[in-house]
């Protein structure tokens, strides 16, 4: 009897010692999520919170070109986030588990200038148009934000007028090119423009000139941890995640 009492006491002591370990720690999964550039700040924020809550380890990667293609084909990869176009392509190629594509954020466009430069008035559509015309050079990307900026410029009737002083950026955020002085006015998603050294954020384009970029998350067919991955999708779209996303200057998907 004394022998069993000692064993019971040891078990109780061990339970007390490890009481702070997450309940799912014994079954903790290791997830990899590939994030598009525009969604990465929000993805990292919710991934950290999900890890703390669930005990699962989440690695967020942001890749492009051959590296991204290799990961999409070979893994390791559990979840992917991207704009609707690239997500649709993955669905067509059979790389995504049917029914798992889930919108989770909407990122407004933003305008920035080099640090110390005068901030243009963009409070109205006419003021925004005047700011584009007055800038010596402007820069935007080829991604979702760049496509939407170009649509706005077209609606203003300025495509041909601005062509000679427009620089379309390749890899990396527009804000990095702006900080180096490659152009005077930079336009991209707000959430990857705010608070970057060497630049000053101006604001969101007015009214119909703000054409936000949506991002969705989806479960990959090659995932080795589908249940944990599905749990993360649920967390990313939960009310609990909303304030975490807003911290990164995006809005949760409606």
Tally of individual helices: 10
Kindly estimate the percentage of residues that lie in beta strands according to DSSP.
15-25%
CATH superfamily of the largest domain: Periplasmic binding protein-like II
Structural class: alpha/beta
Helix content: 25-40%
User: In the CATH hierarchy, what is the architecture of the largest domain at level 2?
Assistant: 3-Layer(aba) Sandwich
Q: What shape does the CA trace take?
A: elongated
CATH class identity of the largest domain: Alpha Beta
Structural Rg: 23 Å
Give the low-pLDDT segments: 1-26
Order of helices and strands: HEHEHEHEEHEHHEHEEEHHE
Number of strands: 11
Tell me, rounded to a whole number, the average pLDDT. 91
What does this structure look like?
By secondary structure, the protein is α/β, with parallel strands linked by helices. The protein folds into two domains: 2-106 and 214-252, 3-Layer(aba) Sandwich (D-Maltodextrin-Binding Protein, domain 2); 109-209, 3-Layer(aba) Sandwich (D-Maltodextrin-Binding Protein, domain 2), CATH 3.40.190.10. The protein is 39% helix and 20% strand. Strands 2-1-3-10-4-11 form a six-stranded mixed sheet. Strands 7-6-8-5-9 form a five-stranded mixed sheet. β1, α2 (40-54) and β2 (57-61) form a beta-alpha-beta unit.
Short description, anyone?
The protein contains 10 helices and 11 strands. The strands form 2 sheets. The protein has a 6-stranded mixed β-sheet. It has a 5-stranded mixed β-sheet with strand order 7-6-8-5-9.
Features of this protein?
alpha/beta; D-Maltodextrin-Binding Protein, domain 2; 254 residues; 6-stranded mixed sheet; elongated; 5-stranded mixed sheet
